[in-house]
């Protein structure tokens, strides 16, 4: 990778890395925070300027990292003229907004959070304009939707903020989804997801029968993002955001993402009738409609929002015209709109900040009170109106020129007339902004007496206003080369059209239209108060009401569907699940083929028959007698026992050990739980229901049995040969099952002990919550004494368990130590020792035993996982992958030679986690007993023979 | 022998499925236990059956071993199904203590499988 390439990657990454800074730096104060926020932006801008000369020469900078090549997804970026223009705008505006927000946000606002969101957004936006892969572009596209959601809803205590944020997310998110589909189609037609390759395949794409669906889907994404009619309504509601956000997202960057996308795809998608009629018409309608509504908005930010909608419509229309000239004009207008509109938003923010209102009807006369703000506001508003000497004039003239050359459905006049009307309305609302806010007499009833803000707050808009004037007077010098290189990138390989960036083009149709627009605008402004009354009296569709009704309707529909299909009858879902599984299995079986049996049957020894009969009988007994819960539970133990014996017989000693110890713990747990549950189940399902269930059950049983029988008679090739061959040399153990667990498939085991630990903690948390709720009250009043034995802590049992304890622990340790080479290991050892402990608890009561317990079970689980994890990580020190084990043999006379393996430490972790989890589960159960007022005994047994004849011991 | 194992798997599956479709939490847990046995046996059987061939490497020359991999998988499955059963038992217990009934279905109109409303079923 060359230096240039890595520079481009760094530019993309900088905002994301920088997003970590503000949250930390806010501790140093707001100025420090703002400074550190501007650092990554400034650095990225500097790097961009380093790459700029090459791009201005017409070169393209590429950078690429392989990501998921199977999906055609790579992290590839490129910088051409269009990318340079947008990246420069995003980073430059980012700097100005950081400065402005430092002074705009009050001390109560969490500024660190704000700057973090801002940098995240900036990174996402940069990603969009620099991506060379449409899948990557889509990811960044969704990221802008998400980060703008956070920014719009930044003042989350305001309902408008939350609603506006949600609306923006729904509209742009839905558009984004449509666009994903469109982009996938596009990539499919072009045979590549690389933008630079798609741009080469324009002819093939336009000729494809999938062109129209792809076009519509992609345009849905672009139109929603760029607030085109009829999706324009979210933008005014997004104005609930803090003004720096509005200035950044809703004038300069995010809403231009749709325009950017249309410009990026222009060489591929433009030039067809479909493109012209969809894009140009939508743009034209949006332009006129936005300008019309803007004229009658009293809220300064709403006025600017609809003006933005209108100007986005203008850009869309220009791109929609499909001529190279119009496309270049669009590029030029993107620059101009950025400069004046961002400044205007900042001015609106300053007015709001100082006068505490942005209602135009309550303002006026600010010219004398805020002279600096007035000058900046006037310059930028005049540019928005398209008055000569300001940059808005130049691009508006060129726009009108492009419009008057356009024929729409056979009509010579439709486009020019509508464009002129749009321009006329634009003049009217721009002049209203100046006239009704700054001009007129000074009032005495401002909510707060306004004055010019600190320099830091007007510095950013002043800089933009300077640009407005400079571009307005010297367009060729200031932006000529940039427009040329970005325009060339938009129109693709075609030569640049003839155009000239100058103020005086002579008397031409565009000038005439412009004069009409200014004159008409002045007339409209003079008539404004009268028109305003008429406008307010007219019935108008309220977009928010329609949107809310739509959302409510969808929500009601989903709720209805859910309540019908998901009605809380779990038995029904399960019946459907089992029946469907059996049916799918049968379908698959019917569609497949099966070879002849290749294995001989193993002989059946007489004891096996006895075991089999016991197992089948026990299973049937459980099913028939399941209402008598206690009986069923005891008989389940028989089944478990038979299965353990079966494992032992069928060459699986490890499984037999595990099964029998798990069996013991499970039955004990169920018995303890049954203490608090009803002892019988009522007979409540109808005969029909039971027949249905029996049918499903028998079908499932038959299918599984025949499947098992079928594959047991056939050979299969497995990977087990590898495990058998490498167990000793590679893993250092002769018990292959244990070596698989702690070495070959150590990851699985590591995950498993974590799951087991989580299960223990879940039970603990569940009981904690339960005993704080109404259940605790109920438990205190429940009388469970009927279930209790008269002799709760029998002498014989206490003595026997005490004697058993050290033996059981020794057996546990023995099983643990031999695990690597003989049946056993951490799992079984953990279970054996927990059974030994359980016996103590059962003999003398949980509270008594608990007092003698020194280690926290939570800690035991934690240490278990940590030890296993560290052992695994230790392999890194030796330069091996995670969980690689090492082992060696030690000979210490007089003991026989023995082995030490890191796998053993891993197994120790397993042991601790299993022990901790099992004990934590039982501890949680005992807490229920305690809260059910079960007496706590201070003595190990109820009747203590040694106490006979002595004085009465103190009772508790 | 294969028939013995297959028929055991079948009976355990059928019993488990039937109990899981009952309307009370406790039989459902019993059913899950039976089904876990069946699934573990089934997985184990996928390694094919062998008698007197445990996968413990012998020091004395070449010997035949059964397939160790399904055994390792089943061992994990046994322990995991224990954890799952424990969590389920606690949830059932908590639900019973909170709601005073241990039915598994919500009592809603139009819910054909739901039992008639009643108090403590003990």
Automatic annotation (TrEMBL), chain A:
PANTHER family: NA(+)/H(+) ANTIPORTER SUBUNIT, NA(+)_H(+) ANTIPORTER SUBUNIT A. Residues 131-410 form the NADH:quinone oxidoreductase/Mrp antiporter transmembrane domain. Pfam families: MbhD (PF13244), MbhE (PF20501), MnhB (PF04039), Proton_antipo_M (PF00361), Proton_antipo_N (PF00662). Coiled coil: none annotated. GO terms for molecular function: antiporter activity. Residues 797-919 form the Na+/H+ antiporter MnhB subunit-related protein domain. Residues 70-115 form the NADH-Ubiquinone oxidoreductase (complex I) chain 5 N-terminal domain. Residues 614-679 form the MrpA C-terminal/MbhD domain. InterPro entries: CPA3_Na-H_Antiporter_A (IPR050616), MnhB (IPR007182), MrpA_C/MbhD (IPR025383), MrpA_C/MbhE (IPR046806), ND/Mrp_TM (IPR001750), Proton_antipo_N (IPR001516). It comes from Phaeovulum veldkampii DSM 11550. It is found in: Cell membrane; Membrane. This is Monovalent cation/H+ antiporter subunit A. NDH-1 shuttles electrons from NADH, via FMN and iron-sulfur (Fe-S) centers, to quinones in the respiratory chain. The immediate electron acceptor for the enzyme in this species is believed to be ubiquinone. Couples the redox reaction to proton translocation (for every two electrons transferred, four hydrogen ions are translocated across the cytoplasmic membrane), and thus conserves the redox energy in a proton gradient. Its main location: membrane. One of its GO terms (cellular component) is plasma membrane. The chain crosses the membrane at residues 6-26, 33-55, 75-100, 112-130, 136-155, 167-190, 210-235, 275-296, 303-321, 327-351, 372-393, 413-434, 455-483, 503-527, 573-592, 604-623, 630-650, 656-677, 689-712, 753-771, 795-815, 827-848, 860-878, 898-923. One of its GO terms (biological process) is monoatomic ion transport. It is a multi-pass membrane protein. Keywords: Antiport, Cell membrane, Ion transport, Membrane, Transmembrane, Transmembrane helix, Transport.
UniProtKB/TrEMBL annotation, chain B:
The keyword Membrane applies. It holds the Pfam family Oxidored_q2. Keywords: Cell membrane, Membrane, Transmembrane, Transmembrane helix. The chain crosses the membrane at residues 29-51, 72-97. It is a multi-pass membrane protein. InterPro entries: CPA3_antiporter_subunitC (IPR050601), NUOK/Mnh_C1-like (IPR039428). It comes from the Bacteria. It is found in: Cell membrane. The keyword Membrane applies. GO terms for cellular component: plasma membrane. PANTHER family: ANTIPORTER SUBUNIT MNHC2-RELATED. Belongs to the CPA3 antiporters (TC 2.A.63) subunit C family. This is Na+/H+ antiporter subunit C. It comes from Phaeovulum veldkampii DSM 11550.
